[in-house]
Design a protein that fits this description.
By secondary structure, the protein is mostly helical. The protein has one domain (9-125). It has four helices and two strands; from the N terminus they run ααβααβ.
């Protein structure tokens, strides 16, 4: 019989999606959270000076990725190997979907039909950031 205190990994993921990803706070709070998540955006190809990094869809998706990372780091502790395998796969699927969402968002200020802007960026979360 299952221990009533032990929450299933699938339930944890479902609760996270229900309570965090679907309950969107005001955009100002999201923007603040994204700044505190300490993402670094590095251009790999093309000019990024004309990109709109304040695009609300972009910021929201970045926020969701950051929340997923926080959830992953918090919940991973205390899981056995079987739970970890399931947890890794489910979180990886969520991460993949959010990354694909980021790819579809148009952050170019130029009209993509008129003159498409080719660029590539890398987004990294700096986990070594310390606040004094």
């Amino acid at each position: 019989m299952k221990n009533p205190k032990q929450i299933d990994v699938v339930d944890k993921i479902h609760n996270f999606q229900k309570k965090v990803l679907s309950m969107i706070p005001p955009i100002k709070e999201i923007e603040h959270d994204v700044r505190m998540m300490n993402f670094k955006i590095k251009p790999l190809m093309g000019t990024v000076t004309n990109l709109d990094f304040s695009n609300s869809e972009f910021v929201l998706t970045l926020w969701r990725l950051g929340k997923l990372d926080e959830f992953f780091r918090k919940e991973l502790r205390g899981m056995n190997n079987k739970q970890k395998n399931v947890f890794f796969r489910m979180v990886n699927d969520l991460r993949w979907n959010l990354q694909n969402e980021l790819r579809r968002i148009n952050i170019s200020e130029q009209n993509p039909k008129k003159d498409p802007l080719a660029f590539e960026i890398e987004i990294v979360k700096d986990a070594n950031f310390k606040v004094n």
